[in-house]
Design goal:
The protein is mainly beta. The protein folds into two domains: about 80 residues, Immunoglobulin-like (Sandwich), CATH 2.60.40.1120; about 375 residues, Beta Complex (Ferric Hydroxamate Uptake Protein, Chain A, domain 1), CATH 2.170.130.10. The chain is built from five helices and 40 strands. It has a 17-stranded antiparallel sheet that branches. A five-stranded mixed sheet has the order 11-16-17-14-15. Strands 1, 4, 7 and 8 form a four-stranded mixed sheet that branches. The chain is globular, with a radius of gyration of 30 Å. It starts with a helix and ends with a strand.
């Protein structure tokens, strides 16, 4: 035989040996791969629903088998756990409910249904917050100072807007629409906010002035309001330099609900004493000015569809001469929970408002002209506000969740002073979260926000914000640790900042029954608004000048806090105290000086937004 034939035969012999080897081992591989399938086929399934004693479905409850493996209930309160045959102790847990233990014996291939009822816990504050870490936590365990405003407090005090409701939160003041937490926001009226205002974790600051429209927020549909005190830029980005106010709307319960509220009142005549005389500041013969509010809400479940509709009508003739406001608002929340894909839900929330009125800017003089407008300073306006928020949420059975939340927010201002402006915010956020039982939670997200402004007041501008964030929260014995980081880049027109990193960290120690110590430090920043950089306008003969060269504010907040839960009979509350320090660099304020040319009105004197340098505040407060 030739060498070529010998080589060919050798090749086929070796190939045949290889094939025989593979065929022989195929049977072993088959057994190896089918053994788990056989084992799985012999395993059992425990499934069912978790509800409260009042019949309310409880999503997010943890079901642990011998504290080794576990799942979380989905949006419908349903859970499913695959286990090998044997005897197990099931532990069912949910914040604000008493833990429940159930002993079961699972047979091979058994399909066991367990419908579990949890009783509310009387040993806890029953205050659960989301804003501190973007997941549900007991308020005692968070590492930052956070306050919760419940809807019943708003309703009982006949509050008409969220601006009025915030007066009930310790350490928070809102003056002429500007939110101020622990005195750290300074004063920058109508242009920029150092407190991020959110509805359901999505920002509600306008594209042009970067301020909050409090009357636009759906006060009639509250789950609760959560206020974080101190720098919160890691989770909420620019404008959370001084903190964040997150309004969480409510979804319907099992029972349909309808609420109608009506409020009316009158202002007394305004008077002022000057020298030895008292002057009536209202127009001669005028009647007392009135205020009236009508709001409604209806919520219900229709199969797997959650539906909430509400609205608000408001009339205020004001106590300052010539000032008045009227608005009408309607909001709608929807959520559909898919039957065929457990844990998947989608929906769209929306809110629309039209308002009209007259704005009061400057007193006629500082004595008998108080509460009366200076000539040509009243401004008639009509505004429109609209937001639409499509979202998709998937909650897995192993403690992971995916959320895509988007928002289109349009604000349009029309007036008789050539200061019209239209702003559009396009916001999108993807959030991934993984929960490791009750021991740890990791939250990460990506953010893209586009701002578009068309304005007589500021001219036309466009902006962009890109960000990525991550935060981890870990519980170990009596300690809770929290740490997070964010990197964000902001751009307006051709002005693009470098990527800006910020960090935060905190610790909470449950040292005694009902006694908690916490400490935290966090960085914050704020990118200048379009209004602060580009506004050029006048009020009467007083001019406001632009400053395109403004730099971003940066800073930090640090605190040490103490919280003691108090219980007297059936009453439960808490005492809270904190020592804190906040420091800002490049703080922006409107300053009166000569910014214009000598040929301008008032020889160029007026207001312009400038970086005033470092500011610092510190205090010991009791809440």
């Amino acid at each position: 035989m030739t060498k070529q034939k010998l080589a060919s035969q050798d090749y086929y012999m070796r190939s045949g040996s290889t094939i025989q080897y593979m065929l022989r081992n195929f049977f072993f591989l088959s057994i190896l791969f089918t053994l788990p399938l056989y084992t799985f086929a012999q395993s059992g399934i425990v499934h069912g629903k978790i509800t409260s004693s009042s019949g309310e479905l409880l999503p997010g409850a943890t079901v642990l088998a011998d504290s080794i493996t576990g799942v979380s209930s989905d949006l419908n309160g349903h859970f499913e756990l695959k286990l090998n045959p044997g005897i197990y102790s099931l532990r069912v847990k949910l914040i604000s409910f008493t833990e429940k233990y159930i002993q079961i014996e699972l047979k091979p291939g058994e399909n066991r249904e367990l419908n579990i009822i949890l009783e509310p816990s009387s040993r806890e504050l029953k205050l659960v917050v989301v804003s501190a870490g973007k997941f549900e936590q007991k308020i005692e365990d968070v590492t930052v100072s956070i306050e919760v405003l419940k809807p019943h407090l708003v309703e009982q005090r006949a509050t008409t807007t969220m601006e009025d409701a915030m007066d009930y939160v310790p350490g928070v003041n809102i003056i002429d629409g500007q939110a101020n937490i622990r005195g750290g926001s300074g004063w920058s009226y109508g242009a920029g906010s150092r407190v991020q205002v959110l509805v359901d974790d999505l920002p509600m600051l306008t594209a042009d002035a970067g301020d909050a429209k409090w009357s636009f927020l759906p006060v009639e549909n509250l789950e609760q309001v959560e206020v974080i005190k101190g720098a919160s830029s890691v989770l909420f980005g620019s404008s959370a330099l001084n903190g964040a106010i997150n309004l969480r709307t409510a979804f319907p319960r099992d029972t349909p609900m309808t609420k109608i509220n009506f409020l009316t009142g009158v202002y007394d005549h305004a008077t002022v004493k000057f020298d030895t005389s008292e002057y009536d500041l209202n127009s001669p013969g005028s009647i007392r000015n009135k205020q009236g509010v009508l709001s409604f809400l209806h919520s219900r479940q229709i199969g797997n569809l959650d539906l909430v509709a509400g609205g608000n009508m408001f009339i205020d003739e004001g106590y300052r001469e010539g000032e008045n406001e009227q608005h009408g608002r309607f909001n709608l929340n929807t959520r559909y929970r898919f039957k065929n894909i457990e844990g998947l839900s989608a929906g769209i929330n929306g809110n629309v408002m039209m308002s009209a009125g007259t704005l009061f800017f400057i007193w006629k003089n500082d004595s008998t002209g108080a509460y009366q407008p200076a000539p040509t300073t009243l401004s008639d306006y009509t505004t429109y506000r609209t937001n639409l928020d499509p979202f998709i949420t998937y909650i897995g059975k192993k403690g992971s969740s995916h959320k895509i939340r988007t928002r289109w927010f349009n604000s349009k201002n029309e007036n008789n002073t050539n200061q019209e402006s239209t702003g559009n915010v396009y916001y999108a956020e993807y959030q991934f979260q993984k929960r490791f039982g009750e021991k740890a939670t990791v939250t990460a997200g990506l953010v893209d926000q586009e701002n578009k402004v068309k304005s007589e007041l500021y001219l036309d501008h466009s902006g962009n914000q890109l960000a990525a964030y991550v935060q981890g929260d870990v519980k170990w014995k009596i300690l809770t640790f929290s740490a997070g980081a964010r990197v964000e880049q902001n751009k307006i027109d051709s002005i693009r900042e470098d990527w800006n990193p910020v960090f935060r960290g905190g610790i909470n120690a449950h040292i005694l029954k009902g006694t908690y110590l916490r400490a935290s430090i966090g960085q914050g920043y704020r990118f200048p608004s379009v209004a602060e950089r580009f506004v050029r306008t006048n009020v009467g003969s007083l001019y406001i000048y632009p400053n395109p060269g403004l730099n971003s504010e940066k800073g930090y907040s640090a605190e040490v806090g103490f919280r003691q839960v108090l219980k007297f009979g059936s009453w439960i509350g808490y005492f809270d105290a904190a020592a804190f320090q906040s420091q800002y660099e490049n703080m922006m304020e409107f300053i009166f000086a000569q910014w214009g040319k000598p040929s301008d009105p008032l020889v160029g004197f007026g207001f312009s937004s400038v970086n005033v340098g470092k500011t610092k505040s510190r205090a010991l407060i009791f809440l």
